[in-house]
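[[Sequence with tokens]]
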Amino acid sequence: MKLSDFDFDLPDGLIATRPAAPRTSARLLVAQGADIADAVVSDITAYLRPGDRLVLNDTRVIPARLSGLRHRTSAQGETQARIEVTLLEPRSDGTWAALIKPLKKLKIGEEVIFSADLRATLQGTTDGQAHLAFNLEGDDFDAALNAAGAMPLPPYIAAKRPADARDMHDYQTVFATNKGAVAAPTASLHFDAALLQTIVDHGVTLTHVTLHVGAGTFLPVKVDDVTTHKMHAEWGQVSAQAAAEISATRKAGGRVIPVGTTALRLIETAARGGEIAAWEGDTDIFIYPGFEFQVTDALMTNFHLPKSTLMMLVSALMGQDTVRRIYAHAIAREYRFFSYGDTSLLFPM
């Protein structure tokens, strides 16, 4: 299984830099096996049955992108440098793991000022990641970060435009609850409260799980033999209630449909023993063709990057030939791709 097996040519103009408005007006490609249909997200109940269950990732994206100044006094006088920071995750010692550009401009013990309220000191580095100690914690830190930070847009959007105030809303799901992600579970961005209520009224139940999506989700695969790729780890939790709900749906003959690859990876991690159970921890599960799904019956997901682990995941669910046809159809019909793009509902047959 080679990396080139998951490659395709994508016109640059199909990369979305803003989401559809309203959210539910995004296009929805529905694949039932090899049969492909075109719809919109607001029509999703036409493809769901009473007794089905959607699994939603309720992680909340933090405004993890910060821009600040480092001041230094030397023999040459006062100097300053612009420092760009992307927070990754809190560490057990109270510092934050972060990416810093340019890291060489910052010395251990130096301080970066992001706003009148928020500043951080470089405590150390590990494997190119910085350890930052902030001057605030708890609610005070959250408030200062919300004021000073920007949404950590994916590289393919950030290369085209900077994050702005609209992204604070657009790059967050309407049911985001548990803060900690530095990337959004993007398939869930297509729902609003009214559509969720329509889905429930249709007889479809909802289950919430939490997977804090990390910046590693955008890391490229660098090995030609994809089976040797090492996944980044992300923290997740499936509660006892969530596991019981998913198990009950399966026993009753309903379909379990994770919304997004993050929800899928998490519930399959929790079901590695064959039956889903409560689970909490770091998962580095890697799903590629040949994977045996334990609880997933279908998947709602956006369109993914060429040669990415997410292309491998959807290929594991649908089959590589079917995925090639799906993506050829999406490109020919000019679906919008990636995080702010359109979406798909995939039913393996």
The chain has a mean pLDDT of 95. Residues 153 and 163 are 7 Å apart (CA to CA). The first strand starts at residue 27 and ends at 32. The chain is about 20% helix and 30% strand.
